Amino acid sequence: MEISTGDIVKFKLESGEIMEGDVQFIETSRNEDILYISSFNRWDRVPGDRIIARVPRK
Predict the structure, then answer these.
(1) Domain presence at residue 1
(2) Other CB atoms closer than 10 Å to residue 16's CB: what's the count?
(3) Contacts by 7-10, CB closer than 8 A, 24 or more apart
(4) How many structural domains does the chain have?
């Protein structure tokens, strides 16, 4: 799934909780992509494999 800065995504936290947020920054490395997501007044650092879906804009 192709994700870019500004996309709204659903993702899974380590606790198993599913959240939704706005991708602010993507850090690309040789092994995996790390997405920095702004959601509910906090920032989450999420590996690319925890992204569940991209949410269409309303």
Answers:
(1) no
(2) 6
(3) 7/54, 8/54, 8/55, 8/57, 9/35, 9/37, 9/51, 9/52, 9/53, 9/54, 9/55, 10/51, 10/52, 10/53, 10/54, 10/55
(4) 1
pTM of this structure: 0.81
Could you give the 3-state DSSP secondary structure of residue 50?
helix
Dihedral over alpha carbons 48, 49, 52, 55 (to 10 degrees): 20
* pLDDT per residue as tens digits for the range 9-57: 999 988 999 999 999 999 998 888 999 999 887 899 999 999 999 998 7
Q: Side chain identity at 58, as an amino acid letter?
A: K
Residue 13: give the domain boundaries.
8-55
CATH number, domain at 46? 2.30.30
